[in-house]
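Lecture notes, part 5. Sequence design as translation. It can be helpful to think of inverse folding as translation between two languages: the language of shapes and the language of residues. The source text, in structure tokens, appears below.
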């Protein structure tokens, strides 16, 4: 029986991206997981895996786990040599592993004999040397060119031959011109904006040379999100050079949390794709979950995402709306609804047709929930500080999901929460004032003791107050 010949359908850059990702993971990953985490299609992944397996860079699970992929010691060595620019070590390893592939052996011999061979003729000659039967040969001429370029890319990447790939003038953002791709969370967007050191030009260059292929692609995706929101622009002379826009500078230099939310809301509502997503939520949901937002994004983009991707993008988009004071968490459930003050705002009437009439988007607590609350005969808060209360709840929501041990170490956020609690203490009834005084004390503890658990306690203390207060006001 004739030996099966693997014809590679990938590039060396693709192999690097997959190895970069696998190196950071423990054990094996499914093809779907690799696809979701590298932001590449399953077919793109499947195009690279056969030759990677043949070269001994990856291994597959057995039997029903065949779609589980892990990186071998050779794969780790290869990606380390590439990232650490150890060209001599890479050349030695490449010279060893390319020989495991029949097609790369043949391709290298052809190029050694005819270094100036045309790309099309090179592809034809590879097929000829492989002795593929005529009825099995490719009918599409471009396939020969594709296989030839792939062989050159792999041999060049492994330092078996000298090869400089042609660069295609394409910006990643072009792929998403008519889409909204929330790669970056609000926290990542803040970090990205803080990368721009204040200077005359507000220019930042991504240190691409210091990053792995995987890291470089992720950072580029984050910048593409910032570009789509109008926060930064790419400078054409350098694909890794970015300039802060006027709106990006305003957001970066916002003085407090309230100003930050107001500016970010204007930025989001200036994006027609974001407005369309919000309209979809407004017209179809009284309250919505992360997964449901992810599904809306998936359908809007005409994509075929897995559940993990939907959840990830849905969570990022949700965090945008929370930080912009458009949505707010609904009680203890993982559901979110529109901020009441946003519905009553000029922005809401400017961008959306308010067809809700007098219907409240914030549902009242169930009888079971009300039975678990202290019975008080009048609203705990007047209508005026409801805005402050919602603002506090949004900040607490954001803080709980923050990726640092003590988010109150940020002086601006700390002071914002203290100011809100001070106003709530002055504007609430005596019966509930003690809760806000306690919350203010817990904020100081979180700030001084570097303990973010106090944040959860604050939210636990006040979430029922809001629900009950709203129900009393509505009635």
């Amino acid at each position: 029986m004739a030996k099966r010949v693997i014809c590679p359908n990938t590039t060396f850059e693709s192999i690097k991206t997959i190895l970069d990702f696998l190196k950071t993971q423990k054990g094996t990953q499914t093809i779907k997981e690799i696809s979701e985490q590298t932001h590449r299609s399953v077919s793109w992944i499947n195009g690279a895996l056969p030759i990677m397996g043949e070269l001994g860079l990856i291994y597959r699970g057995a039997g029903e786990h065949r779609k589980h992929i892990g990186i071998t010691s050779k794969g780790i060595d290869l990606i380390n040599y590439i990232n650490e620019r150890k060209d001599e070590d890479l050349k030695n390893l490449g010279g060893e592993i390319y020989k495991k592939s029949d097609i790369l052996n043949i391709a290298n011999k052809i190029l050694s004999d005819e270094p100036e061979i045309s790309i099309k003729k090179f592809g034809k000659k590879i097929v000829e040397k492989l002795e593929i039967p005529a009825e099995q040969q490719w009918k599409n001429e471009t396939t020969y060119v594709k296989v030839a370029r792939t062989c050159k890319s792999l041999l060049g990447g492994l330092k078996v031959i000298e090869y400089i790939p042609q660069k295609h003038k394409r910006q990643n953002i072009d792929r998403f011109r008519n889409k909204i791709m929330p790669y970056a969370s609000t926290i990542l967007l803040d970090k990205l904006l803080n990368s721009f050191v204040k200077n005359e030009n507000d220019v930042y260059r991504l240190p691409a040379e210091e990053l792995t292929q995987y890291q470089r692609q992720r950072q580029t995706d984050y910048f593409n999100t910032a570009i789509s929101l109008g926060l930064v622009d790419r400078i054409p002379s350098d694909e890794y050079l970015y300039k802060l826009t006027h709106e990006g500078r305003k957001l970066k230099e916002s003085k407090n949390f309230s100003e930050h939310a107001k500016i970010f809301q204007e930025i989001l509502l200036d994006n027609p794709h974001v407005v369309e997503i919000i309209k979809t939520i407004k017209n179809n949901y009284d309250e919505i979950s992360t997964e449901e937002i992810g599904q809306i994004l998936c359908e809007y983009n005409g994509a075929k995402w897995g559940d993990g991707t939907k959840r990830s993008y849905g969570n990022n988009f949700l965090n945008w709306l929370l930080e912009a004071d458009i949505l707010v968490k609904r009680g203890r459930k993982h559901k979110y609804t529109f901020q009441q003050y946003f519905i009553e705002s000029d922005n809401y009437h400017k961008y959306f047709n308010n067809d809700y009439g007098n219907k409240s988007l914030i549902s009242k607590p169930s009888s079971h929930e009300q039975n678990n609350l202290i019975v008080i005969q009048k609203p705990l808060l007047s209508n005026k500080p409801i805005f402050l209360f919602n603002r506090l709840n949004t900040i607490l929501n954001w803080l709980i999901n923050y990726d640092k041990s003590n988010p109150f170490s940020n002086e601006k956020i700390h002071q914002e929460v203290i100011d809100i609690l001070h106003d709530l203490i002055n504007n609430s009834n005596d019966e509930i004032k003690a809760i806000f005084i306690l919350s203010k004390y817990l904020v100081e503890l979180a700030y001084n003791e570097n303990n973010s658990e106090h944040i959860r306690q604050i939210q636990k203390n006040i979430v029922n107050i809001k629900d009950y207060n709203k129900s009393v006001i509505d009635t």
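The translated text above is only one of many valid answers, since several sequences can fold into similar shapes. The chain is about 55% helix and 5% strand.
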